[in-house]
Design goal:
Order of helices and strands: EHEHEEEHHEHEEEHHHEHHEHEHEHH
Shape: elongated
Largest sheet: 6 strands, mixed
Number of helices: 14
Distance between the termini: 14 Å
Structural class: alpha/beta
Strand content: 15-25%
Radius of gyration: 21 Å
């Protein structure tokens, strides 16, 4: 029997590698001779770096860069010399996890460190940059990222503006003449798990601003600022990137990638599943198992488990999913390809307990679900 194990990371609890190990242990308790094929999954948010680290040959390169509050932080990118490809997970330089709750402020945070990481990769020889868009602390429209690469944002009297949300509305001119790399030699991809536009009721500020410390007045202010940035870009180029799905990812860094480095935005789960060879793994499989910290109705829209389920369905392979929390109506996943969902938690417990004991809970849940799967095959 062949089982494909393809989990996402569990934030603050398990990496993809640890989740794979926990699932495999649950399977071995029931069927020690079963063949398991581990595939590491991410959807563009936190965990993209780890998936590549676990799957491909390469090196972790560490740099001191500008953090979300403009203070120095230690961050890293993953570089694959054979393909001259670098993976830059923006959360490592500009992520909300780098801040305490009381430090979150969507008006004063920047993506500059993400741009510095990308520039370091280019200087090391990278010709393709994958930027993971997720887990951001920012709402600067990608200004900080672009400024680190040589783009200048000027106010009405020609003075530089700060690359933070507070100054989005001050941008009058965008000068791209000072780029620090040859744009013809670098290919960029933004890897994201959301399809939000830059502005409006589904935009970066309205949907994601509150979790970054923005109150209703801040949201309105930031949304107007992002609209101004997009307007100035359109005036200068004649192009409109603000309405492209994913432009609102990572506080508008999706927009910044398209506008300032001509990046293509791609659904993160598709990028990852193609690169890790999920279709080859599913060939001849009897079962696929996926997992994530939380499963709800939004999981169907570009999240890792939904991607695994869809690929499994194409191969005619049944798929089950585990989550720390199952919330609301997630029945839309059944049509996509996930046949059943199971919670890790056998009873009431605190979030702290669930995070602490995540691996043990995942192993136990896998064992019981796998026993049920085998019973159904008798």
């Amino acid at each position: 029997m062949k089982i494909v194990v393809a989990p996402n990371a569990f934030k603050d609890s398990m990496t993809t590698a640890q989740a794979c190990q926990a699932i495999e242990e649950g399977i071995r308790r029931v069927a020690p001779a079963a063949e398991t094929v581990c595939v590491h999954v991410a959807d563009g948010g936190d965990g993209l770096h780890d998936v590549f680290l676990q799957t491909f040959a390469g090196e972790v390169v560490r740099r001191t860069v500008t953090g979300p509050l403009l203070d120095p932080v230690e961050a890293e990118y993953f570089y694959m010399p054979d393909t001259r490809t670098a993976v830059v997970e923006m959360a490592r330089a500009s992520g909300i996890a780098l801040l305490k709750t009381e430090q979150r402020n969507a008006r004063t945070t920047t993506t500059r460190g993400t741009g510095e990481l990308a520039l370091a990769a280019i200087e090391a020889g990278a010709e393709k940059i994958l930027v993971g868009l997720g887990g951001s602390a920012t709402n600067d429209g990608g200004m900080g990222f672009a400024e680190a690469l040589g783009v200048r944002f000027l106010d009405a009297v020609g003075q530089p503006v700060r690359p933070v949300g507070d100054d989005l509305g001050k941008v009058a001119t965008i000068d791209t003449s000072g780029l620090k790399f040859d744009p013809a030699k670098i290919t960029w991809e933004g890897v994201c798990d959301v399809d939000n536009p830059l502005t409006g009721e589904r935009g970066a500020a309205a949907v994601f601003g509150p979790q970054k410390g923005a109150n209703p007045d801040d949201v309105a202010f930031l949304d107007a600022g992002l609209a101004n940035l997009a307007k100035r870009y359109t005036e200068a180029t004649g192009k409109d990137c603000a309405t492209v799905p994913g432009a609102g990812a990572a506080g508008g860094l999706g927009f910044g990638l398209m506008a300032f480095v001509n990046a293509e935005l791609r659904a993160g789960v598709d990028v990852v599943l193609d690169m890790v060879g999920i279709d080859t793994a599913l060939d001849g499989a009897d079962l696929a198992i996926t997992a994530e910290g939380r499963i709800d109705f939004q999981t169907a829209f570009g999240k890792g488990p939904a991607g695994v389920g869809a690929r499994a369905k194409k191969h005619g392979v049944p798929c089950i999913a585990f989550a720390g929390g199952l919330l609301g109506d997630f029945s839309n996943l059944h049509d996509i390809g996930i046949d059943a969902c199971f919670s890790l938690c056998p009873g009431l417990m605190s979030l702290e307990e669930a995070i602490r004991d995540g691996a043990k809970l995942l192993t136990n849940a896998t064992e019981q679900a796998f026993r049920a799967f085998l019973a159904g095959k008798r």
